[in-house]
Amino acid sequence: MVNLKTFQKIIIFSLNLLGGVLIGFSVFAVWTEPSATPPNNNVSAPINVGSSPQSKLGDFGIGGGAG
């Protein structure tokens, strides 16, 4: 026969285990695998790449000089 203290320990252990599993699943569910090898199709192109019109807010400088 299981005494009350042992039963309480089993319940607390089971709830902690269930909580850990739920947290693990929620972290796993949020993860999205990249669609391609980085940086292909995963991020916007830098301001100096591409032929489409681009704009930037703020100063733009090369070699530390701000325009």
What does this structure look like?
There is one protein chain. This protein is mostly helical. The protein contains one helix and no strands. The termini are far apart.
Structure described in brief:
This protein has 67 residues and is mainly alpha-helical. Helices cover 40% and strands 0% of the residues. 0% of the residues are buried.
Supply the key terms.
mainly alpha; rod-shaped; 67 residues
The SS-based structural class is mainly alpha
Number of contiguous helices: 1
- Biggest sheet architecture: none
* Spatial shape: rod-shaped
Low-confidence stretches: none
For the terminal residues, how far apart are their CA atoms?
81 Å
Strand content: under 5%
> Strand-and-helix sequence, N→C?
H
Oligomer: single chain
Q: Give the proportion of residues in helices.
A: 40-55%
Overall mean pLDDT score? 75
What does the radius of gyration come to? Answer: 27 Å
Instruction: Please tally the β strands and state the result.
Output: 0
Q: How would the blueprint of this fold be written?
A:
Blueprint: H1 4-30
